[in-house]
Amino acid sequence: MTTHHLDLPLKADPSSRFLPWIVALMGYLATLSLMIALSVSTLIHHWNRGFQDHITIQVPAGSLFEKESSSAHTEIEVKVRHTLNRTAGVGTVKILSSQEILEILNPWVPKESSLETSFLPQLIDVEIQNRRVFSLPHLRQALHTISPHIVVEDHLTWQSNFLDLARSAQVISFAIVTLIILAAVGTVAFTSQTSLIIHRNIIEVLHLVGATDAYIAKQFQMHAFRIGLKGSFIGFILSGLTILGLQFFIQDLHIPLLENLLSSLSVWSITLVIPCLITLFMMLAAQLTVRLSLRASV
Amino acid sequence: MQDIPSKNAIHFQNVSLVFEHGVRLFSGLNLTIESGGFYFLTGVSGAGKSTLLKMIYLGCKQSSGTISLFDTNTARISFRDIAFLRRKIGIVFQDFRLIPHLTVLDNVALPLQVRGVSPRKAQAEAAELLNWVGLKDHLKSLPHTLSGGEQQRVAISRAVIGRPKLLVADEPTGNVDDETALKLLYLFEEMHKQGTTVILATHNRNLAQELKYPEIFLEKGQAFLLEPEPTLIKEGILV
């Protein structure tokens, strides 16, 4: 059924003036929340993939230990390497150069500073090819016999706590999106009921000239569609501008979460779902509210 | 709902209406109106003319008894079918009840649009009808800019545009001068000649007697059918 205009003057309702801005605010918050949730999700995926396959071995700097000379330290390195090569499940073994270690330390120790590299521990990045056959306790024990100062860090042990935190943030973000959509639904249901009361005389005339409840509900649905689309897209654009603004002001900080947000086209595409979802739920809420209210009023 | 010819347009059987505050308007009312007839509905002010019309167009539910429209028991039809049944009825309200923010053209096109007719076609038909009732210069006007007589013609145009099987009008000549009243009655007669059952509620019994059409006279919660000559035939038709 096509109508070129609304038989009900819903545009003139007081709610039509403020509702698009409320929806814009909802769209803004929901889009930001979803962006955060998706970025956290991307980071979790990245960390999972990056950390699951690696462990790091720290061989303390030789000069720190009185009993161990420089040659002894080199000997320890050779033994460590040999042990790693014999350990089941271990793949490539890479001893990080001083330059690479300094790059890792860059956020805390600027490159320009003259840090004495001989004080730094030797870091060995070990790729675990097969977790099933690899035994961390056995490796720890073997390395302990070489030197009790060797530290083995399996990222999985501390990563799980960090992942729990990230997942909690993700769940909270999705919960916020859900709550915002529910709030939009509630707002539309309330304003639709108010409009039904305001326009009850016209609705009665529409019924008496043969309009079905579906015809009347469709008018409310179209109105909700216009408001939902307008408001939620304003919110979406504002949230995009907010992220761009943040990037502009803190671009030197290299915050991985923000970098992910801005660089990922898929994150931007997925967040487009927010205005569509808000509009869709608003339409459904209007349709359902009007139909139920009209049925109840018979 | 099948659109098959029905013998009776309206059939009231033992219908009573008691308002919420306890006042009884109709009590055991029986009335049968055959399809294709032209009737005047008369009675003193407060006799229940408007309420009876309201019950006919399903704007008000009886307290007890049975109301059938076009051989369909109105108590046994679904909400959706009520809308379809109303499409067979054209209603002219005493206070016109035009939709204030819609133009004259849109008001008249409305019954067609709710039936799913395209806006373009509905407006073309509405424009033709408004031209016929002398309102071609007011197509884009809003109702409040028209005189009472012009608004009445818009209301009648809206009632007849869907070619209803039953046309009910509540005091259609009450707000217009004699000349306009005659034109309106001519329009109703034209509808009647095309097979539409017409019921005109009026407080003016002389009008009914002059035009020689049967009169349904309401008194003390009962309906009396009077032939053109002021002779009481019988109380109700089926009593």
Short account of what is shown:
The complex is a heterodimer of chains A (298) and B (239). Chain A is built from ten helices and four strands, in the order αβαβαβαβαααααα. By secondary structure, chain A is of the alpha+beta class.
Structure in words:
The complex is a heterodimer of chains A (298) and B (239). With 298 residues, chain A is α+β, with helices and mostly antiparallel strands. Chain A contains ten helices and four strands, in the order αβαβαβαβαααααα. Chain A has two domains: 10-48 and 160-297, no CATH class; 61-149, no CATH class. Chain B has a domain at 100-158. Helix content of chain B is 32%, strand content 27%. Chain B contains seven helices and eleven strands. In chain B, the strands form two sheets. Chain B has a seven-stranded mixed beta sheet, sandwiched between helices. Chain B has a four-stranded antiparallel beta sheet with strand order 2-1-4-5, with no helix packed on it. Chain B starts with 7 loop residues before the first strand and ends with a strand. Mean pLDDT of chain B is 87; it is low at 234-239.
The helix content of chain A is: 55-70%
Tell me the span between the first and last alpha carbons of chain B.
30 Å
How many separate helices of chain B? Answer: 7
Strand order of the largest sheet of chain A: 2-3-1-4
Q: What radius of gyration of chain A results from the CA coordinates?
A: 31 Å
Mean pLDDT of chain B: 87
> What is the beta-strand fraction of chain B?
25-35%
User: What is the number of helices of chain A?
Assistant: 10
Structural class of chain A: alpha+beta
Strand content of chain A: 5-15%
Categorize the overall geometry of chain B.
globular
N→C terminal distance of chain A: 24 Å
